[in-house]
Amino acid sequence: MKRESIISQLYDKDKIFDFVVIGGGATGLGVALDAATRGYSVALFERSDFTKGTSSRSTKLVHGGVRYLAQGDIALVREALRERGLLRHNAPHLVKDQLFLIPCYRWWEGPFYTIGLVLYDLMARGLSLGRSVCIGPKRAIRTIPMLRREGMTAGVLYHDGQFDDSRLAINLVRTAVDAGACVLNYMNVISLLKEEGKISGVQVRDEETGAVCSIQARSVINATGVFADDILQMDKPGNRPTVRPSQGVHLILDASFLKSDCAVMIPKTSDGRVLFAVPWHNKVVVGTTDTLMESADTEPV
Ligand SMILES: Cc1cc2nc3c(=O)[nH]c(=O)nc-3n(C[C@H](O)[C@H](O)[C@H](O)COP(=O)(O)OP(=O)(O)OC[C@H]3O[C@@H](n4cnc5c(N)ncnc54)[C@H](O)[C@@H]3O)c2cc1C
Fold first, then answer.
1. Quick one: 155 and 176 in the same domain?
2. What is the DSSP string of the chain?
3. Which residue range forms the structural domain that includes residue 145?
4. Of 173, 231, 242, 244, which residue is the least packed, with the fewest Cβ within 10 Å?
């Protein structure tokens, strides 16, 4: 992963990459790795650090999509559970089993969530991380002493995955480079190249030296997440926005907030959100909110 030797590959004027990927988040890095391992030539450009965007600021859950189960999207849950199992299998150093508790305060919630989560386990087939069970309030309080005991009718324990998003990204970069991909950060895509009206590559600026370079490609993939419209504007200035950004806030609290290795999941807050409180490096990550924003920022406040 020597920057100079990777950059020197860009200066071959006759080189046409099969793919240029814009954006070094989870999506772009996954695409670059997939393309490289299928034998395609691929260059990926990230304008900042890898996973500078959303991909280092997640709730760190590799979940099978419990919330999609509630929405009845069975196909999506199946796919997510399979991906969760594959990630756990391929990257056991980054993905671990995390126990969750749903505290229930209404009589029907215990049986309702137990049925849903047993279904969730069954859908994971051989890739399930552990069995879901319904427990009484006493055991729920023993598991997480900080929960409100008053009015609790039951608790439901289930398993899901937790991962380190930034480290997974760095592993993806290294594996993609091993497979022959040309992956560079601090390379800002500043415009698109066109031939006969069709996109034929990108112009990138090295943010360390200021050097600008044109790269030809058969396909250009826009994996810039919430910034996707900026790239679409380079193609067709004045294009109508396709992305409505929204912002999620996590609170990082001391581990004493939970006093447990078990995470809490609240399926529906009073304003309709799914809320997690998850142990993470001797802290607890609580979140998230979901607020529509007018524009996206690389340093959201
Ligand atoms: C609050 C919150 C919590 C979440 N929690 C989870 C979770 O627990 N588990 C889960 O699986 N998912 C979670 N998600 C979703 C997940 O984080 C995102 O789906 C994922 O990170 C999106 O990755 P991406 O690569 O598409 O975008 P990004 O990570 O935003 O990557 C886009 C990249 O493009 C780069 N870029 C932009 N413009 C240019 C340019 N011109 N040239 C070069 N590079 C450029 C940016 O710098 C950025 O690094 C969460 C999302 C949010 C908002």
1. no
2. --HHHHHHHHT-TT-EEEEEEE--SHHHHHHHHHHHHTT--EEEE-SSSTT-SGGGSS--EE---HHHHHTT-HHHHHHHHHHHHHHHHH-TTTEEEEEEEEEE-STTHHHHHHHHHHHHHHHHGGG--S--EEE-HHHHHHH-TTS--TT--EEEEEEEEEE-HHHHHHHHHHHHHHTT-EEESSEEEEEEEEETTEEEEEEEEETTT--EEEEEEEEEEE--GGGHHHHHHHHSTTPPP----EE--EEEEEGGGT-SSSEEEES--TTS--EEEEEETTEEEEE---EE-SS--SS--
3. 96-162+245-292
4. 242
